[in-house]
Amino acid sequence: MAAFFGGPPKTIVGTTLSAVPHHLYSTKLDESEWKPGTGGVLAIFIEGPCTDTHGNLFIVDIPGGRILRLDLDSTEWSELAQWGGEPNGLAMRSDGCLVVADYKDGMLLCDPATGEISSLYKRRNLERLKGPNDVIVASNDDICKLDCLISNGISPNGLVLSPDEKILYVAMTRDNSVWRCPLHPDGTTTKVARFFQTFGVAGPDGLTVDIEGNVFVTHSSLACILVVTKDGLPLAKIIPPQGECSGTNLTNCIFGSRPTDRKRLYYVESRSGVVGYVDWHCEGVQPLRPISTNGHAKGDTNGSSGTAPFVKPSTRLRQLLSMEGVCHQAPGVYDGICARVAIEQGFPIMYQSGSMTTASRLGLSDLAFASLNDFAMNGMMIANLDPRVPLIADADTGFGAPPAIARMVQMYDRCNIAGFHIEDQVINKRCGHLKGKQLVDMETWKARIRACKIGRDSIPGGSDIVIIARTDAKAPMGYEEALNRLIAARECGADVAFLEAIETAEEIQNAVKVLAPMHLLVNFVSNGKTPWYPPATLAEWGVKASIPRHKLAIYPGAASKTAYHAITSSYKYLKETGMDEVEALGLKPVDFFNSMGLQKEIEIDRLAGGDAFAEDA
């Protein structure tokens, strides 16, 4: 055990990011049975912060019985779910579902895409949990929770695993200490001891760790976060900025999950609703999160937590499209590098552009040079880098007659591609923003869509791959004929409408209404025919439609054209100076490889017992 004495650790002052706006304060306080230790009623009491790779911070509001979401970039707040329970702990599984420890309702699941709440599990014989307080999810999706079942723990109130997951740290609030619990392979523990002793009226609360093994201990009565080394020695003290929040109600902290903020520690103050942050010198622990392939069960009630369900990319895409009042951005990707960057930046969907795939794989222009195999193999590589981020792929004209189109659908589905778009140009097609396009007749067009549906329906075990109907009819035949072709596609089984080279806001808004209940996809090509509209504006147009439809915006050239200019500049610099431009910019090889998944592969090697990639090996 290490006691908190001696010279004071260095003090780091945090920065306030945002606070829960008053219009989101709970209005149902009289209905809540939850009361703080001092009694009375609270309008807000936030806890359980949890981050995702898309730049969201999720927190629970205990008296409000709900989960709130904070967009870390825009600092916009929203209510994700409300069910009248008393949630306290929050953690994320590998499938993106939030695990909730609820005093009143036990262990729950929340789907961030829909806000749906469901029961995770109960004890054997349906015995009610005694009041779960906190929860963590290990790298293999095992769940560790605090429940009021034993008496030798002195008010346990926070949990965290060491980076190697061999030690469980538990905050004992009324004992003013943190306990260290060595874990055995079967999940049991022995030789439990005090790891760190503090002082004050109220003791430690939430805990988190960084990759060096330092433990971050929130302490409300000391109005700070104590940073303790893995040896139990005080390293630093983090305090909120004076005047913005008292710090006396600090309850928990968590590191960011995006590569851009993994060194940023976020903290929450319960009664003020304040969220603040500190930039740390190293990353927080990011558990290895394998994707399970055992189906899509929401949870069970037989006393077993099971493993994380795998949500097919196509199902995930449909979930995203069903989100109300949202227009999702899908950047154009064409190789592993730009796909990795898109995933790092937290985009919910990716788009494989046909023109850019043709350019990158073949070095040719978009004139129907690429084959089905070119598109499918490229899509398979991209779609499986992280199947949680669904990929929409270009399918040109379907690569042949109806039987070939049905085969294309089945091949795309096997490649884990979530959705595709097929168009009404002739087989010798060209880019939709070029002149001189030629189209097939209406009956041939409808046959293509029907072939897509037949191909999907004949996949063994079923498939929900998303069919996107693209028409290029606006330029040669006019706007009304383009709408007629999309209406015909809807009647033949298409899920999403793609009106290429749409030119005005009025055309977009009218298409949303006319084509409902189909979703509308808008294609933004750099220096193309479609004006730029922000996603929030597109989402607003969808909400105001007579039958609300939520749109998808794709940006096929977002990476390729930028890369073209960057590569041109780099090669010019090399030719003129004899030196790699990246050398001048200071990008180390390891930094690039980390973006390509190096740390995950090192972790797999470590878990398997290898040391080939160990530090200094």
Keywords:
3 domains; Neuraminidase; TIM Barrel; 26% strand; 5-stranded mixed beta sheet; alpha/beta; 8-stranded parallel barrel; 14 helices
The tally of beta strands, per DSSP, is 32
CATH topology of the largest domain: Neuraminidase
Distance between the termini: 33 Å
The CATH C-level class name of the largest domain: Mainly Beta
DSSP helix fraction: 10-25%
CATH homologous superfamily of the largest domain - what is it?
Answer: TolB, C-terminal domain
Short synopsis of the structure:
24% of the residues lie in helices and 26% in strands.
Structural features, described:
With 617 residues, the chain is of the alpha/beta class. The protein folds into 3 domains: 2-279, 6 Propeller (Neuraminidase); 313-562, Phosphoenolpyruvate-binding domains (TIM Barrel, Alpha-Beta Barrel); 587-617, no CATH class. The protein contains 14 helices and 32 strands. The strands form 7 sheets. The protein has an 8-stranded parallel β-barrel with strand order 25-26-27-28-29-30-31-32, surrounded by 8 helices. The protein has a 5-stranded mixed beta sheet with strand order 1-17-16-15-14, with no helix packed on it. Strands 2-21-20-19-18 form a 5-stranded mixed beta sheet, with no helix packed on it. A hairpin with a 5-residue loop joins strand 14 and strand 15. Helix 4 packs parallel to helix 5 (402-414), helix 5 (402-414) packs across helix 6 (442-457) and helix 8 packs parallel to helix 9. It is globular and about 80 Å long.
